Amino acid sequence: MKRLLAALCIVSIILMGFTPASARSLLPVQKKSEAEAVRASWRQMSEEELLDCLDCIVAHRAPFIQSRQQVIDSLELQLREASANDSLCYLVATELLYAHIGFSTRELLRYARLGKTLADKVANPRWQQQAAIHMARALIQDGQYEQAAQWLSPLMGVVYAENLRDYYDTSIELYGWKSECSSSEQDRRRFSLKSQTYRDSLLMVETDSVWRVHQGSLLMAADSSHIRQSLCKEREVLDALPPNHPHIRHLTFSIAYLYESLGQADSSRYYSAVSALYDLTEGVREYVSLRNLALDLFDKGDVERAYHYLHCCVEDANACEVPLRMLQFSPDFPVILDAYQQKIDAQGDTLRHRFLASVLLSVLLVFMLGYVYVVTVRLRQSRQKLWNSKMELEENNRKLNQTLLNEQEANRQLQEANRQLREANRIKEAYITRYMTECSTFIDKMSSYRKNLLHIAQGAKPAQILPALRDTAVEEQELNLFYTHFDQTFLQLFPHFIEEVNDLLQPEARFALHDVELKLNTDLRVL
Question: CB under 8 Å to 109, separation ≥6 — which residues?
């Protein structure tokens, strides 16, 4: 019975303990120090460990968004404090613009327009040109590519040296987006070629060595024969960077792209996860790595992760207000959502079946518990009866033992009485024997004495009779003999009589007899 109950309990726990993967609690990576720890150790992590960390960050990414928002709030405070100085306001507005790239398109446009207004107000030609480039960048993020081109076209050939990098970088982004959004293969190639041309120009003015390698690798990767060479260069640079370097998210994204071009899906998925980890921990809301990772995981069969990652992408794209990203997600999200819904429905069916099974087992368990309770009550009653019977039996045994003890005492007393009776009989026999012996001896002596007197009397010698009668020697002799026989007989019957009498007396009043043959004195004979 106990084994059956234990088996039912174990099965119930297994059934009730089933939870889908989506319901598992995740350990949040919420603090900056924790995010830095993950960044510092991602090279030692396996793909699954990296994805587990990414799961936590996706589920609890709000602190990183708040951290970036705090930086923006601090800059906005500086902007308000510098409102009296247009030049300082322009510089702070430029920093705010860079802070909103990939974070909020609406605010990016607002600060781009503010920067253009301040640059015109200050009448600084270099700042005016830089503000125009920033306007183009904001319009690109907003999906207004033609308007962005209109801001960049007048600058061709007249860009100041300090603005060339931003100009080339913005042009690369513009024609890259236009290539991606073009429906015509011819236009796509044309825009891609222009993007590569501007990337080649960027390499001539780029001062950041890491960014030079990154852009140069992407330029070389346009030719499929140079993909492995580009990959080696980027990997070499990446391995030398510290964990918190700002270009790691770009390098890992391009490395994932190169691995994908080589058909190495596992490596591509791994570096996409690293890039997504850096995107999210830096508070970026406009990204591609997590989307690519979601699609790779969906192809791998990990529908749940794919759904959560793509859902995160959609939420951040909506918050960032990047229309092109929404267009990119629109073909994939319904497919993944449908697959995820099917998985959830299947899990729901499984849960319902398990729930019904658990209910049936619970009912059976309740029935068994009721049965066990009844059996337990009966056993308790039986045990109580057995206990009462045991107590009665012990009481009877006690009484029987007491009776046996009483009988033994009675037997002992009876035996003592018999012993005393035998002793009394022995004394009587001894006394009777001694008495008869003494009487017989006395009769014989009296007969001899009579015959002696008769002989004297027959001899007619009366004078001799009188002295014989007056002689007491015979009487004294017989009396002493009587005392001797009495003492011997008494001491033979009661050998410890003298010691027992002395025990009753004070030491000075005790009897001390020194004869070899113990004899009684007169006092002892009286006693």
Answer: 138, 139, 142
Residue 478 has pLDDT above 90, yes or no: no
**Burial of 485 (C-beta count, 10 Å sphere; 0-12/13-18/19+):** middle
For residues 489 and 519, give the distance between their C-alpha atoms in angstroms, rounded to a whole number.
10
Closest CA to 287 of 306, 299, 269, 273: 273
Angstrom distance (rounded) from CA 251 to CA 246: 10
Rg of the chain over Cα atoms, rounded to whole angstroms, equals 64
Compute CA distances 268 → 49, 184, 285, 310, whole Å: 16, 28, 21, 17
pLDDT digits (tens, 9 = 90+) for 408-452: 888 888 888 888 888 777 777 777 677 667 777 777 777 787 777
Which range, of 124-138, 259-273, 497-511, averages the lowest pLDDT?
497-511
Query: How many angstroms separate the CA atoms of 203 and 150, rounded?
Result: 24
What angle do helix axes 125-141 and 161-181 make, rounded to 10 degrees?
20
Q: What is the 8-class DSSP label of residue 518?
A: -
From residue 49, how far is each of 24, 25, 260, 273 by CA, in Å?
16, 16, 21, 11
CA distances from 144 to 147, 155, 316, 324, 507 (A): 6, 18, 20, 10, 142
Cβ neighbours of 162 (radius 10 Å): 11
For residues 204 and 165, the answer to whether their CB atoms sit within 8 Å is no
Arithmetic mean of pLDDT, 325-330: 56
State how far the Cα of 139 lies from the Cα of 137, in Å rounded to an integer: 5
Residue 112 has a CB neighbour count (10 Å cut-off) of 27
Question: Among residues 3, 7, 8, 12, which one has the least CA distance to residue 355?
Answer: 12
pLDDT digits (tens, 9 = 90+) for 362-391: 898 999 999 999 999 999 999 999 999 899
Would you say 136 and 148 are in contact if contact means Cβ atoms under 8 Å apart?
yes
- Which helix or strand (DSSP H or E) is residue 312 part of? helix 303-320
pTM for the full predicted model: 0.61
Tokens of 408: 């033994």
Q: How many CB atoms lie within 10 A of CB 105?
A: 25
Distance CA 248, CA 141 (A): 22
**Helix count and strand count (H, E) for the chain:** 21, 0
The answer to whether 118 and 89 have CB atoms below 8 angstroms apart is: yes
Residue 361 dihedral angles phi and psi, to the nearest 5°: -65, -35
